[in-house]
Amino acid sequence: MASTETTAVKDGNDLDGVEAGLDALETVQTSRTPLRETLTRKVLPPVTAIVLVLVVWQLLVWAEVAPEYKLPSPSDVWGEVRESWLQGTLFDYIWTSVSRGLLGFLMALAIGTPLGLVVARVRFVRAAIGPILSGLQSLPSVAWVAPAVLWLGLNNSMMYAVILLGAVPSIANGLVSGVDQVPPLFLRAGRTLGATGLKGTWHIVMPAALPGYLAGLKQGWAFSWRSLMAAEIIASHPDLGVGLGQLLENGRNNSSMAMVFFAILLILVVGIAIELLIFSPLERWVLRSRGLLARS
Amino acid sequence: MATALAKAADTDASVEHAARIDHVSKSFAGPAGQQLVLDDITLDVAPGEFVTLLGASGCGKSTLLNLVAGLDKPSAGSITTDGRPALMFQEHALFPWLTAGKNIELALKLRGVPKAERRERAEELLELVRLKGAYGKRVHELSGGMRQRVAMARALAQDSKLLLMDEPFAALDAITRDVLHDELTRIWRETGVSVLFVTHNVREAVRLAQRVVLLSSRPGRIAREWTVGIPQPRRIEDTAVAELSREITEELRGEIRRHGQH
Asked: What is the complex's ipTM, to 2 decimals?
C-alpha cells in the first residue's frame, strides 16, 4: 500500500484535478422528458388523426356515397361494440385469438431463435437453408392454410402450424441479420477476453445482435397475427370457438357490414396494442440503454 | 487494493520473456499474389518492460500485434507469450449492453474469477484508473478518455503478464491523451505489467517507452531500436523527449522517403 500511495500522490495531485475537470466537461448529461411534453408530442398527433378519420367517415355516410349495407356509420359499428360488451362476448373474441396468437408466437420464438443462430453461425447450414428461409418470408402464410387443414384437420394444431410457418422465418432472419451486423471489433475484443465458441455466442454475439433480433421479433409477431387471422377466416369450425377471424367471417355470412367493420377494428386494435404494450417499450429500453436512441 | 496490485506486480522469475517474437513473417493474399507484410521480425519483451513499436502506415504494426494477441497466425516463425495477453484497441471496444463495471466483470468472469469476488475486484480496477463511482455508468454516458480508461481497467482485469496496446489514444484530443499518458505510466509502474504499445506518434513513443522499436514499411522489418534512458515521470514537452523524438523522426522520414524512390 505504502509504495503505491507515494507514487500516486507524487504525480497524482495535479493529474487528479485535470482529469476530474476533463471528465466533468465531456460527460454527456441526460434527462427525462416531462409528462406534459410527452402528451403533446406523442399522444396528441395520433388522437387528432383518429378524430379526423371519424369525421371524414361520418361525412361520407351523410353524403350517402354508398348504400348503408356497404358503408355502415360509425355509430352502427359502435353499436356492435356496445352490444358485444353488454353480452360479455367482446373479451371472449379477443382472448380466443390473442391467446392463440401469443402461444403460437412463443412457439415460433422457441424454434426461430436456435434456428437463426445456427444459420448465422454455421456456414454450411447458411448456404443450405439461408436463401430458403428468406424466400419463405415473402411467401404469404395464407398459402399454408390449405395444406395445414388437409394435414392436420380443422383444429388448433392447424392454426399453430400456420402461425409457425409465418413467424419462424421472420424471427430467424431477424436474428441472422442482427448477427451479421455485429461489429467485428466486438468479436475481436471478446476473443481477447477469452469469449470463444459457445461463451462467445452467449456473452458477445447474442447481446450484440439484440437490436436486430428484436426487429425480427416484432415482424414475427406481425406475421403470427396475420397468419392467424387468415387461418381463422378460412377455417371455421364450431369446436374452434369464435375468434376475431371467425367474427369477420360471421359478419360476411350475415351480410352485416357493421359486424365486419367491428371485427376489422378489433384486429387492428389488438395488433397496435401488442406493439405499443410489448414491443415498443422493449425496443426503446434496449436502444436507450445503449445510447442509440436519438433525442429529438 | 494493495494485495491485488502486489499480485499483479509479482512476475514469474522462471519465465524470461513476457513475449518472444522469433523470426516472424506474415503474408496475405493480395491482388498481385502473396504480399509480404512482416519480414523476419525478432523481438523480445522482458517482464515488466515497456516497448513501443513505431512505424508509418503500412508497416504492419497492427498485424504484428494481432499475431502476438493470437488473433491471427504467422506465416513463418513463432511467437510465445507468458499466458494470454490482454489487448486494447484504438476504439474502446467496450460492450454497450453492459455498464462500465459489468464490462470489467465480464473479463473477470471469462477468466474464472468467482462471482463473489468480481464486484469488489471491478471496483478496485476502476479505482486504479481513477474512475471510482463509474461502476453503474453506461458506455455512452462516459467521455472518450473515460471510455479508454474503462477499457484499460478491463484489459487489466485479465490479469495478463503482457498488455498489448494498438494506438489506444490516437482518437483522443491532445489534452486527454496527455493525461492518459501519465495514467498509463503510473499504472504500468504500479502493476509491473509488460506493455507492447503500437503507435505512429514519435513523441508518444518516446514519452512512454523504455525501448522504441522502429519498423520499416512494406514489408515491415525492424529498422532500428533506441533505449530511452530519460527518467520517468517524463512530460511530452521535455527537452530530452523532444531531442530523441527529432532523431527518431529523421530516421522515420528516411524510411518513408525510400518508398518514394522506387
From this structure: 0.81
